[in-house]
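Write out this protein's structure.
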Amino acid sequence: MFAPVYLDHNATTPADAAVVDAMLPWLSLQFGNPSSRHEYGRAARRAIDHARRQVAAAVGAQPGEIVFTSGGSEANNLLIKGAAACFKPGILAVGASEHPCVIKPAEQIARRGWTLHRLAVDSEGRIDMDAFAAVMALKPKIVSVMLANNETGVLQEIELLAAMARRAGALFHSDAVQAVGKVAVDFRQLNAAGVQALTLSAHKFGGPKGAAALVMDKRVDLEALIAGGGHERGLRSGTENVAAIVGFGVACELAVQRCAEVAPRLLALRERLEERLLKLGAIVFGRAAERLPNTVFFAFPELDGETVVGQLDRAGYAIASGAACSSANPEPSHVLRAMGVGPDLARGALRVSFGSGNTPEQVNGFLDALQTTVARLRQLTAMAV
């Protein structure tokens, strides 16, 4: 079976073998409903409680601060919509380069009487501090800025931003979906600075799809999006996906254990890739900013990103032309547009995101295939002029 080299780990990661092994019993013999009072149910409840402790420990939180959801998108929607429901309409501020699952619910809230401010970023993708301070002076009620961008990998100064938001009296949330397993994430430290809620998602670091969490200061009031049996402290009703939650817990443990060893290897791959990309004439976005060690977002002027992705896929390399969650959208990356990148260059954007299984040999092979592809497409472009 033909299997392209996988270089798209920001979209999703392969489930770790230990994660799969931990999940399997909960897909067969251990089938109890965690709300049931008999031993089948009690066993499932114990498994969820154990996973909750694992997730909490991985990010320096308390188990009671973990609210399990079906994904990062649900967790972000729960925070934004749930918090807005507990306030009178006011100002909601989100980063201009946020994931759509933050921007879209913010736009929905804006249609219900809230005032939406998109926090400007500079040409490297970092929040513009002067613009941020100006918005904080307006006393927003809710602020959401992601810790690590899913396209560029750019890291934000979350503690500084959260402290400014706290002085303004705002609830501050950060989407940390891309960060766990690649950089250290400590909710206690972030919470002390002013971060009151954090979003995590299992499938971004070797866990299963369908399991995520909102890590939340217990003092935050939210209205549930899904009402019913009162699961997850009444914040997320519905019978829990026990197998996925168990896998989430194991993935968290493994990600934290391996981060110190994996991150330098990912950074070495990133540097190897970028060195040759620049020689090939690529533009690397966010290169001057602090970034995730595994992510490179780049473009070749005058080349279409989707075309390059298709050619590389046939050559045996799987990369992305943007965020997987918005791959059906033909418009240029909103992240790059927020950074001031023109639409023509933005349409050429390509993302490589490494995982722990990638090797220097794979990077070299990818670069050779990319060089051949770019040369061929440039020749075709020149002939068409």
